[in-house]
Design goal:
mainly alpha, about 5% strand, about 80 residues
Length: about 80
């Protein structure tokens, strides 16, 4: 999935913070809901402008960010 297809940052919408396309729901808000343990169905009920595809895009963004930001530990040599 190309998560960039589902997000936009526009200085005229939510102060330029990244939002899910077609909504005023920020990426930060969606990720915080997921981190709090909210079920996808609950998030979609709370934010009816979101789709399951938006949620998956947010997860893909977080996974890609973690890949870039978290170092991979060295594999220990086995004698």
């Amino acid at each position: 999935m190309n998560y960039k297809d589902h997000m936009v940052a526009d200085k005229h919408v939510c102060g330029g913070e990244a939002v899910l396309k077609g909504t005023r729901v920020t990426l930060r808000t969606l990720l915080a809901s997921l981190a709090d343990g909210d079920e996808i169905a609950t998030i979609l009920e709370d934010y009816p402008s979101l789709t399951e595809e938006h949620v998956r895009a947010a997860i893909a963004f977080a996974a890609d960010s973690a890949r870039d930001d978290l170092p991979v530990p060295a594999i220990p040599k086995v004698a």
